[in-house]
Structures are given as structure tokens and as C-alpha cells.
């Protein structure tokens, strides 16, 4: 991550120094609600940087801004669930800062327009703020119980597209590495030898090689927070654009990308009535543009190593083979938002 200019602070940190009795989450909410000014002008971006000469002020009596984007792309709906497309940069649900705009609020507004009374909408699973892709919400208690049971049993189909730095040594593999969370840190990491963590399994296969980077499809066998990002980073191939799990000592990646290159491309589940739903959504324009630029810059790469021996002890080989290499397929095309539904 780029260092801030000398003497500059993020706006919430500056506010914390000016208003020490207010919590950071309260100050962040004040920024989002348009109650903070810099040199007399409203600034509503919590990531804004202010310099030492800037005059920053919070007026808690200023009228709160409540401009909420209600745009929503619905991919599937039935009596018990609704699946939607989450854009990058949007929270799945509000944090303690009580953000007004989130995917949950947009889905709730959509449901309120279609149903009488207060609709039932419940979060089933989540995507990181800067990850795009498909999410399903429950519309009934029955739907929530069924979807959560499939998550616990690891029978929900979840596939992601990711662009990782460097050239992966094999065509496919499985990461079977426990994950631990450092106390007081937002980062998680792979457990050390003989250290107990939470089991995490990620299957992956190469779709396209660029030399500088590799396009992969990853399928979750477990659903731990940041699992894909942690596993690839630990293997020496962090996701392009990942500001958290990419080692800051690495040279800058030659193609700029403003977020982690991760897109939830496929989601499938069984409805309470036994119907099988399978959805696929092509990645957005920024992801497709990254892939196009990497193709333009592609350099020859050596052939992948032979697949690791099947049946090797879990965790001993970072890329344990999962069977005969498949024929790599190209990535979904250029950012269109197409969804398909069918039976598995």
C-alpha cells in the first residue's frame, strides 16, 4: 500500500485526534452521512486524505445525507430465496458504522416494493466489500435453514475467478491449510506446523496463463473468511490488487488494479422443494479489462510441473493433485452480466 504524504492523515484518524471522545466507527458514520467538512466543503469518503493545513470539522447537527443507491441485478428469485449480483465496492451488510448503502439494504428495498408489510430478508453468506459476484439471500425462515444447512455440509456450489500474481507451477491443485486469526489483527494467516487452526480447503485449476499472472477458478470446500486470498498468498501467488495479503516488500505489480481480482462466478444450491438452482454471472468490466491487459502483455511460460501424486498426505504439498489435468478454458467474456439457471 502506498504511504501517505508526510503530515497527512486519513480523515477519520484526523477526526479522532480532534474529537477524542467519539469512537472511530461514529466518526466514520459522520463522514458517510455528510456531517464532516474539509476547508468548508463536505467530504463523505472515509478514505479521504487530509493534509496538515486542511481545516477539518464535524457538525453533528448538520442534516444527515441519506442518498442510497437502490440499483440491483436480480439473477434468481423464488418463494424462499433471491440471488443477486454484488458489485465491487459495496458492503454485503452494514458494519458497526451503520452504513446506509449495502447489498442487504438494496435487497430489502427490492423486497419491500414487491411485498406487503415488512419483508423477511436474511443474510446467508458474505463477500468481501471489494469482491464482486453472486450472493443469495433467504426470503423465508424455511429458506434460511435450508441454505445454511448446505453451507455447513459444504454442498453449496461456489466457484470464483481469481487473477493471481506469477505463474502457478501446476494446472490444478488443492490447498488444505488451516487458517488462524491473529488476536487484534484483521489479517488472518495459514497455521504453522503443529498449530491448531480452522480447517480450510480450496480446490483450484488454471484457466489461462499470462506469465505475469495466472487466471484461476477456485472452488470452496469450506467457507472461511478470506480463504482464497490467504491460501494463494501463502503459496507465493497473492491475488492481483490485494492490499491486505500481498507482501508490501514485493515489487509493485506492473498492471494496476484497484481491488483484489476476485469474482464469485458460480453459485448453486437445492431449494427446500428439491429444485436444483445453478447460477453463473460473468465478471464485471474492470475484471475483464485486467484480463485483456494481461493477455496483451503475456509472455511465454514453461510447461507446468507434473501433477503431484494422488493420495499424498494432506497439507504436505501446497498443490496436491486432484486428478487428471483438464483442458484449460478461457475466462467468461468481457464483463456482461449474464446468468444461467439449470439443474446440476
Protein topology:
Blueprint: E1 9-10, H1 11-18, H2 24-32, E2 36-38, E3 41-42, E4 49-50, E5 56-58, E6 73-77, E7 81-86, H3 103-114, E8 122-123, E9 132-138, H4 141-153, E10 157-165, E11 172-176, E12 179-181, E13 188-190, E14 201-209, E15 213-220, H5 227-234, E16 262-270, E17 276-280, H6 285-296
Parallel strand pairs: 9-16
Antiparallel strand pairs: 1-4, 2-3, 2-5, 6-7, 7-9, 8-9, 10-15, 10-16, 11-14, 12-13, 14-15, 16-17
Structure description:
The protein has about 350 residues and is an alpha+beta fold. The protein has 2 domains: about 10-60, RNA-binding S4 domain (Structural Genomics Hypothetical 15.5 Kd Protein In mrcA-pckA Intergenic Region, Chain A, Roll), CATH 3.10.290; about 75-295, Pseudouridine synthase (2-Layer Sandwich), CATH 3.30.2350. The protein is about 20% helix and about 25% strand. The chain contains 6 helices and 17 strands. The protein has helices at about 10-20, 25-30, 105-115, 140-155, 225-235, 285-295; strands at about 10, 35-40, 40, 50, 55-60, 75, 80-85, 120-125, 130-140, 155-165, 170-175, 180, 190, 200-210, 215-220, 260-270, 275-280. Strands 6, 7, 8, 9, 10, 11, 14, 15, 16 and 17 form a 10-stranded mixed β-sheet that branches. Strands 3-2-5 form a 3-stranded antiparallel β-sheet. It has a two-stranded antiparallel ribbon with strand order 1-4. A hairpin with a 2-residue loop joins strand 2 and strand 3 (about 40). The longest helix has 13 residues, at about 140-155. It is globular, with a radius of gyration of 22 Å.
Amino acid at each position: 500500500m502506498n504511504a501517505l504524504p508526510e503530515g497527512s492523515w486519513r480523515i477519520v484518524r484526523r477526526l479522532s485526534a480532534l474529537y477524542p471522545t467519539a469512537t472511530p466507527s461514529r466518526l466514520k458514520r459522520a463522514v458517510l452521512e455528510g456531517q464532516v467538512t474539509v476547508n468548508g466543503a463536505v467530504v463523505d469518503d472515509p478514505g479521504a486524505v487530509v493534509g496538515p493545513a486542511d481545516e477539518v470539522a464535524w457538525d453533528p447537527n448538520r442534516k444527515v445525507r441519506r442518498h442510497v443507491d437502490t440499483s440491483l441485478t436480480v439473477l434468481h428469485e423464488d418463494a424462499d430465496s433471491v440471488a443477486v449480483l454484488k458489485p465491487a465496492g459495496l458492503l454485503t451488510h452494514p458494519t458497526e458504522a451503520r452504513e446506509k448503502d449495502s447489498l442487504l439494504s438494496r435487497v430489502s428495498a427490492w423486497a419491500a416494493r414487491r411485498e406487503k408489510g415488512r419483508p423477511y430478508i436474511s443474510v446467508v453468506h458474505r463477500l468481501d466489500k471489494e469482491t464482486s459476484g453472486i450472493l443469495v439471500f433467504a426470503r423465508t425462515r424455511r429458506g434460511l435453514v435450508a441454505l445454511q444447512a448446505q453451507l455447513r455440509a459444504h454442498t453449496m456450489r461456489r466457484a470464483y475467478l481469481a487473477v493471481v500474481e506469477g505463474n502457478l507451477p501446476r494446472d490444478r491443485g488443492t490447498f488444505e491449510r488451516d487458517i488462524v486469526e491473529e488476536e487484534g489483527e484483521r489479517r488472518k494467516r495459514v497455521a504453522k506446523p503443529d498449530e491448531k487452526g480452522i480447517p480450510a480447503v480450496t480446490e483450484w485449476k488454471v484457466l489461462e496463463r499470462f506469465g505475469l499472472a495466472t487466471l484461476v477458478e477456485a472452488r470452496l470446500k469450506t467457507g472461511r473468511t478470506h480463504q482464497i486470498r490467504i491460501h494463494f498468498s501463502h503459496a507465493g501467488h497473492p491475488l492481483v490488487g490485494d492490499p491486505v495479503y500481498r507482501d508490501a516488500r514485493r515489487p509493485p505489480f506492473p498492471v494496476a488494479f484497484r481491488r483484489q481480482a476476485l469474482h464469485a462466478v458460480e453459485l448453486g444450491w437445492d431449494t427446500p422443494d428439491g429444485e436444483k438452482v445453478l447460477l453463473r454471472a460473468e465478471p464485471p468490466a474492470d475484471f475483464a479489462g485486467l484480463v485483456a491487459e494481461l493477455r496483451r502483455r503475456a509472455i511465454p511460460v514453461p510447461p507446468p510441473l507434473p501433477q503431484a501424486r494422488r493420495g499424498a498426505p494432506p497439507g504436505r504439498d501446497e498443490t496436491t493433485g486432484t486428478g487428471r489435468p483438464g483442458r484449460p478454458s478461457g475466462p467468461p467474456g468481457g464483463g456482461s452480466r449474464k446468468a444461467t439457471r439449470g439443474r446440476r
